[in-house]
Amino acid sequence: MSNGRMSNGRREFLKQGVTAGLCGTTALVQGEDLHQEVRDEMAGRLNFLSAPQGSPPSILVSPSPKVRPFTTPFFTPCVPEPLFAFVPEEYPLRFEISQHNANTNARILLTKADIDRVTLRLSRQQLESTSELNLAWLAGFWKRFTETATSLANIDIDLGDLPDPFAHQRFFDFKTQYFYAMWEVEFAWRFDECYGKDSYNWGFASFCKAADHPKDNGNYASYQDCQFEPLRKNQQWKRDASVGLPAMKVRLQASSPGPTFQARYGQPVMVRRVNSLPEILNDAASYKNRRRIKFALPSTTTHLHNAHTASESDGNPNDWINTGEYWDHHYGNFPSGYDPNEKLSTLWYHDHRMDFTAANVYAGLDGFYTLFDETTDDAGADLDESIKQDVGVEGEGWGLPAGDYDVPMILHDLLFAHPDGEKEETPPYDPSPQLVFDGFNTDGIIGDRLTVNRIIQPVMKVEPRKYRFRILNGGPSRFYELTIHTESVPAKVSDGKPDRDANGDLIGEIPFIVIAGDGNFQPNALLARSLYLGVAQRCDVVIDFSEFAGQNLYMVNVLDQINGRGPSGREYHRDTFVSTDISCQPADGVEPFFQEQGMVKFEVGKTLPAPDKSTLPLAFRSFPPVDLTEVRRERLWEFDFDGGLWTVNGLTYDPNRIDAGIEQDTAEIWTMRNNGNSWSHPIHSHFTEFIVLEINGVPQYQYTVQESEVQNSIPFLKKPRSFIQLDGQFRDQIRDSLEAIKKSSESENKMQNLYEQAPAAREFLKRKTRAASDQPQTLEQLLQRLITNAEQWKGNLYQQETQAVVEIQRIETVLLRSYSPEDIAKTMQQVRVVIAAIMLSKFGTDHLRGQVKHFVDEENEFGIEQIRFQSAKEFRLMVVLLRILGIAELDLRNNGDSIKGEGRFMGGPRRDVAILLPDWEVTMFMRWKDFLGKHVMHCHNVVHEDHAMMIRWDIVPPGHGFDTPKRADRFYSVELPHEVPHVQPMPEHASSHENDSDQALDR
């Protein structure tokens, strides 16, 4: 909306929130009337919804009821079971043959009723335009659906109508192999042991294995007050083996986060999401299934962030369903443009309802969707082990931690209140505190209770082995910077700074091993001091607890943020932290720093029940290349505040206005600019990732991690290379260096052999060096002195690395007196190889030395991609070796003073969320492939999104792109009359098929 005005309709809509309970500021379990002081507060806030008069005062001034940190067990959602499977080999080859049941070898036989279901359901045009093979597949798919629906009806669950294949783009190109169903429900939940079991929550119910998940800690809570009647505790369904999956008993389990999908590339799925939330206006205490969460809207649409998905399955803010309706989401699970480098790993789904995204996600509507790589080729044959990647199985492919050791974590900050308005001082509480949401705060919502998977500061028992954590900032408005600490405090060293690796063991603040950002694997793993996460950003890390058996570790948020506008720029530090929080019950033996800033406590067991088969690769896969010849347009998007609402290019969101027409199979360059000087905006555009080109006008190198984005400026300096390129001269340099290390390490007399394997140094023995009383007389003496000194180096890996760097600088200084830059570079590379070999000899394991040997063995085609580490210690040693060799800087902590914030991981060059701090701008390269249709870009501080900081953009056929906003109805009816975006019909309405009726399908 331009000119600083808000539409009367929107103002009236927000005013109605006071009486309809859509923006409630207190959770009233019994449906009581609001206190007069709260009414007065809310009425006064309406002034801030017109012309800007400053920011409203926070209504969230009362702290949540007290808790005891790290007493409630960690919660891990279940993995949902598909209702049925229908894989390609199960259906007949020809539709006409199947009518006579001639294909007796088929695993599913089609009867005349199955054929009639297709011929009577589809229009003549659809029958004529669909191949016989696809018609046969559809007949079998619908047969499986019908069998499953009939079985579910035995426990009073109506699965609904047949899925409509023509409501989805390229449906037959990516035939559904697994069909899931989920129900959006309201239920009681245990946020904390002190809060009891009756805090209400929204989430997703799905069928999971009947046996309790070993990590759920009994927190699939009570359902007696749910609107969805079949969702009773221990409700089970016996799935027969005839539906293409093993026969088993599964049960409906509701949770928030919702169940974690484990999908695989090359295996398309369909997810039917059913809105079973309680309706508005059933709040009365006498109503059996009255609504408990009153600030959210039981009208939903689920977005799979940031899947490469057609628009009709994207969860567009305007494709909502109301209570009793459902929507089918078809996920092709293939990379953009079929480019394997475009694959993603960690995605998440969340509600995206226009104007109510913040409230609905805050209520609990989100969960993880993880994607693993293929294990078979297109013909169904098993892939060779050498080319398998992230397959989700320990000991195969990359071998990353999997199963119970692959742990999703969604971070939310929440606020709670006592339903009766009284402030009890001592937990446990009766009745349970309830969620509070301030619907009149347009800056952003900040809660004082930090939750992980909807549990307040949980404690997680872990084994002394490697884990993969997929960490997500679920919002709605808080930014995080996460660090991880041991309970032990490091001793100070001579310079006053804590020792990173005292006595060979990590003590104090320890590094993360970062493997992915925003779902994108980095070209190689990295060491980072901290993880900086704007709303919706994700980071996959590996933590090796084998170094901390019997100890406690804490994951801590060190970023200060006092309101929804964004981070203050201050950090909390353990050694200077001063406790100010009076809202927590003291936890025995826990530092105030952990008690007040901690997110989760890890209690590491003393023994390992079974061997750790997981591994950590050195290299993953390259980023997609940036090809500027693909660029068709450049666009500027300016984010600002106007007239009480958030704007993009001076406009508020209008679902019928297309702000950009993007041509299919092209690329564009977008610049996102924050015109505000007080707010931070995490900007997300659906459908595709981007490669960062510039930040504040400073070029960003694709193979350098941009980890200082939160600073006020970025020096125009070439940063150390943070990634290993997997081909070309760079690869040869690694091979040559490691081969020299290998040869230097094979002789019994290692130190003498180090010198003998330095041919560049031997060349210079024929020359004379400049005499100096305090320096060796020849290069031979210089190298011999290096080896002698190295024998005397003391301390742990990092301490000896420091001594090695000093030695390298000393030798280079000597050489500068006599030799040309070319000669010096050649000699110094040999010196670096010698030092690296010394470090490998001192600190390397037999396994790591074997990996180095195997890599350079010319008889084997063993590349960088096949190097595997069995522990974090091995990886840290390789980081040191690559740094000494001058090949790459994989330790982000090594580039300056961590007190200033350096050493952060910000997501890497390829992301789907751009962090715009005040007065910042980011320029990026983006591609749009494979589909047409509508999508959106918005601020993922979802409070800003709900107050109109969003635009619509459409992928249109080649030659029809445009820059000036157009009305969607005119564009598609006049300018593009034959290309209409796909629309999935609501289940209670007639669809666009010629012979459809309003009646339910006769299965």
Automatic annotation (TrEMBL):
Keyword Repeat applies: no
UniProt KW keywords: Capsid protein, Virion
Gene3D superfamilies attached to this UniProt entry: Cupredoxins - blue copper proteins
Superkingdom of the source species: Bacteria
Chain ranges of the Plastocyanin-like domain: 633-699
UniProt xrefs under InterPro entries: Cu-oxidase_C (IPR011706), Cu-oxidase_fam (IPR045087), Cupredoxin (IPR008972)
Compositionally biased tracts (Basic and acidic residues): 990-1003
GO molecular function, one term: oxidoreductase activity
Region (Disordered): 982-1003
Name under which the protein is recorded: Spore coat protein A
Species name: Rubripirellula lacrimiformis
Gene that specifies this protein: cotA
